[in-house]
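Hi L., both proteins are below.
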Amino acid sequence: MARNTLAEIADQGAVNIAATQARKAEISVANKAIHKFGGEDAILEFIASGGTISALCKVLGVGNTTFDRWVERGGAERQAAYARARTRAAQSLAEQTIDIADAATIQEVQLAKLRCDRRAWLASKLSEEFSDKQQPLVNIDLGSMALDALRKRSVVSLDDSA
């Protein structure tokens, strides 16, 4: 078992304090950038309109992790609002596919198809409503079927004396 010197313990404490202060400074920068953007409502509206988190973070000048921390620090209310915005984003992306398909010309069909496919894929990730995954229609429990069959079997004696 290694014994830490008093200096090593103090150095580790200083490193921990510096890391905590750095995280607080990141959140402070995020709060200022969000306020400058228009506040929490503007952020949620950007997301609900189909904007990506990466694009939002570029505009704000913060990292994705910092943005995630900002959402978490807002508590259950902010997290619920964020989840609702992501669900609305899926609806917005699905509606965008209709607009893209309607506006496509013969020369742009492949590009329009690609844009529609990407938006539909993203919508399926944001909301189960737009997911292609089919839920199983029948659930068969083979384990209990095998046990039931074993319980109902009869024992037959193979005796040659009969």
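That was the first. Here is the second:
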Amino acid sequence: MLVGCRRCYCGRCRYGALVLLAAILLVGLAGCRPAVDVVSLSKAEQELTYIAMAYSDAHTKLGHGPKDAEELKPFLKVFGDPEDLLISPNDKQPYVIVWNVNPTGGPTEYQGMFPILAYEKEGAGSRRAVTDVRGRPMTVPNEDLSKLTYVGRHKPATN
């Protein structure tokens, strides 16, 4: 049996053909990958992310969780106007923030969320935006609020 091309029997032509075939297959397979869907955060989710980040910064610098909005505001300034960031665009109410706690904890049973640090008081459309201690936001149905784990053993008020 002959190895290589018919003209020179060198073996290099066969190797080159295999490399070319592999490259064609890789390019073809690359086009078959599913498209990545990027979901934008709602304004409330983005603001809650900023609140969680500012809360973490405040905890680090103060040595304790902020005790109220006034203590958090200096750390929110890097993200925008603290007065605006502390009000939900959906229900026009101040966000509920769990004050004076250590923003730590691990994954919980609810969709891998860590303990909830802040959330909308009323939300909109029977849904509320929440954020965990890492700053990961999510919008959840109102009936799921009781399924969430909150930092510092907080329990949301029932409406």
